[in-house]
NADP-dependent malic enzyme (Alteraurantiacibacter aestuarii), 752 residues
Amino acid sequence: MADKTNDFTAREALFYHETIRPGKIEIIASKPMATQRDLSLAYSPGVAVPVQAIADDPANAARYTAKSNLVAVISNGTAILGMGNLGALASKPVMEGKAVLFKRFADVDAIDIELDTEDPQAFIDAVALMEPTFGGINLEDIKAPECFIIEQALRDKLKIPVMHDDQHGTAIISAAGLLNACHITGRKLEDVKVVVNGAGAAAIACTSLIKSMGVRHENVLMCDRSGVIYIGRDNVDQWKSAHAVDTDRRTLEEALVGADIFLGLSAKDALKPEWVVKMADQPIIFAMANPDPEITPDAAMAVRPDAIVATGRSDYPNQVNNVLGFPFIFRGALDVRATAINEEMKIAAAQAIAELARLPVPEEVAAAYGKNHQFGRDYIIPAPFDPRLMETVSAAVAKAAMDSGVAQFQIEDFDAYRHALKSRMNPTTSVLTTVYAEAKNNPKRVIFAEAEEEVVLRAAIQFRDFGYGTPVLVGRTQAVRDMLVELNADDPESFEIQNSIDSELVPQMVDYLYDKLKRKGQTERDVRRMVNQNRNTFACLLLALGHGDAMISGLTRTFAQTMREISQVIGPKPGAVPFGIHMMIGKNDTIFMADTTINERPTAEQLAHIARETAAVARRLGHEPRVAFLSYSTFGNPPGKWLENIRDAVAILDAEDPGFEYEGEMAPDAALNSKVMRLYPFSRLSGPANVLVMPGLQSANLSAKLLRELGGNTTIGPMLIGMEKPVQVAPMTAIAPDVLTLAVLASAGVVG
Ligand SMILES: NC(=O)C1=CN([C@@H]2O[C@H](COP(=O)(O)OP(=O)(O)OC[C@H]3O[C@@H](n4cnc5c(N)ncnc54)[C@H](OP(=O)(O)O)[C@@H]3O)[C@@H](O)[C@H]2O)C=CC1
Ligand SMILES: CC(=O)C(=O)O
Ligand SMILES: [Mg+2]
C-alpha cells in the first residue's frame, strides 16, 4: 500500500465549505410558491386547514407536514470526531455534513442543531421540547458518559426514534465489518480475543453489541487513557466498569499480546506498529478514530502484511464508518413510524450490511469508486455509495421494527417497499418497472455483440440472473468463458457463446449477406471476411436469421461506425427513418428528446415521423406525450430561414390528427416553463412538453450530451428506433446498467 496523506489541502477543505454559499445545506421548498394562490394555500388562510386537522388528530402531522421525513442531528460538540471538546459551534460543519449524508444516501431530510450546554439535563430538556418538529433524533458527537444519560432519558421520554449515532451507528457498522473479517480469517466470535482502545461512547456501544452477538466478556480487554480497565481499578465509572475483567495486564501494549482483534475508538496514533507485531496471526485491526486513525493502514501492513485493516476514512480500503448505518437505519425506522430504534433493528442492520458485502458488486458502485470490489481482505464492508444499501438495510430495519413491535405502521408488501426504496434514489427504476416486468414475463434472446468487453458481459450476466431472458454472447469462446469465471457468473459453462470461427451458421450467413450486398460492390470473399472478422456483422446475421430477438453493440466502435456495420445487414423498417431518442429522467419529469443520433437536417416529413414514433415510445413508457418541435424561435419570433420545415412538420400532423398533443415551433423555455408558456395562450400544449423534437442533429446531440454531463438527470439512451429488427447501439462510455437497460428495452419491444 502506498504511503498516504490527505489528497486535499486545508485550503481546499475551507474553500469547499466557503464557496457557492457558506456551509453545506440549504432548504428547498417542495411545493410551488409562484402565484398569489400558492401563497394563500401555503400560508394564511389555507394553512389553517391542516393546522385544524392536526389539532383534531396528531397523526395528521405525518400527512400534512414534513415531520415524518425530518431528522434532527443534534450535538453539543463535546466529542467532535476524535478532536475532543471544541464546543457546540465548532461541531456545526460535522453536523451539517451528517445532514447532507442523510439526504444524499437515504433521502431523509435532516437539519443540524448545536446546543450550547454541557449540562445533560439542559440538553435533555431542550431536545424533548423539539419532539413535535421531528420524525427522529440523531444525537452526535456528545462525549461519554453524558451521552449515555442523555440518550437513555430521551429514549424514555420521546415517542420518536432517538439514536446516538457514535454509539449505535458505529457499533452496527463495526459489528458488520467484524463478522466479515472473522469469516475471512476463519474465526468464530465466541473464540476471538479483542482489545478495545477507548472507553467512550463509541467503544462502549461497540463492545456491548459484539458481546450480545457472541463475543465472550472475559475475552475483551478495554483500555482508556489510563490503560486496561480491570476489576478493582480506581477511577472507573459505571459504564466502563461493566467491561472490567480480571486480568494482570495493565497497558495497551500488554493487552495486545496474542489478541485477534484491535478495535480503536480513541485517538490518532494510539497504536504503535511495534505492538501490532505482538498480535495473533492474521490480526484484525479496526483503527476507527477520525479524522486520523490509531494507526495508518500503511504502518500496520508494513509490520503485519497478514492483517485485515479498516479505518473510518474514505480514502483507504475498508471504511468502517457510521455513514453506512445512520441514513438507512433512520429511513427504515421513519417508514414504519417506529417509536424507537431497538436492539433487534440494530442487529438486523448489522447482518444486512455484512451480507451485502459478500454479494457481487454492481458496476455503478465500481464506477463510483473507479475500481472493482470483491469480498475479501480489502473489501470487508460495502462502500457508502453502494446503491443497494438503501434497499437492503432500510428494509431489514423496517422489518425488524415490525417484528419487535415498535412499528406504528405495517408494511404489507415488502417487495413493493424495497422497490419504492430503490426508486426513491433512482427514478429510472420506477419508470422502467413495468418494462422490466414485461421482459421477465416474456423472456427473449438478446445477442450481446461485444461479449469480450467486461461491461457488456456484466450486463449479460445480470440479464440472465434477473430473469429477463437468455443472453447470446458473441466473442472468442475461451476468452468469454474465462471472463465469465472471473466475474463469478453462476454456471459459466451454460452460457451460449457464438463464435464465427467455429459456427456452423457461417455458410448460411455468407449466402444471406452476399445476396444483400452483391449489387452494392461486395464480392463473396469480402462478405465471407466480414462475417468471419466483424462481430457486428456476425451478431446482426444471428439476429437476421432468427437466432436472437434483439441485438446490442456499441462499446468498441464509434456510433457512426457501428451504425455503418449494422446497416449492411439490418435495414430500416419499411417506411421508417431510423433515429435516436435520449430519455432524461429528472426528479419530477421525464423528457424524451429526438433525433439525437442520425439525421443531420431532418426534412419536414422526417420531423413529423420522429414526432409520431417518439410519442409512441413515451406512451409505451407510461407518459402521455406532449410534443414540442423545438427551435431558437417561438412562433415566428425571431424570424429565420430555418423555420420552414418545422412549420411544415406541424402542418403534416395537422392534416392527420395523430392522437397526441403537439406544437411548434418553440424555444425550450416556451415548451418547458409554465410561466413562459402563459405568454402563448393559443398554444395547443396543455402542460409542459415531455417530447422534444429537435430541429437538427447539431442541437439535439449537443443538448443530450450536455444534459448527460451537466444535468442532475439520469439519461437513458440513445435508443435506436426504426430498424427492421430490434438493434441498440450503446454509447462507448456506457456502463453495465446502461447496457442492461437498453437490452431490456429492446427485448420488451419498447424501442426498436
Ligand atoms: N469510524 C466511525 O464511524 C466512528 C469513529 N469514532 C471515533 O472514535 C473516537 C471516540 O469517539 P467517542 O466515543 O464519540 O468519544 P468519547 O469522548 O465519548 O470517548 C473517547 C474515548 O477515547 C479514549 N481515548 C482518547 N485518547 C486515548 C488514547 N490515546 N488511548 C486510549 N484511549 C483514549 C478516552 O479515554 P478516557 O475515558 O480515559 O478519557 C475515551 O474513553 C473518535 O476518534 C471518533 O472519531 C466515533 C464514532 C464513529
Ligand atoms: C464518524 C463519526 O461519527 C465520528 O468519528 O464521530
Ligand atoms: Mg460522530
Summary: The longest helix spans residues 165-185.
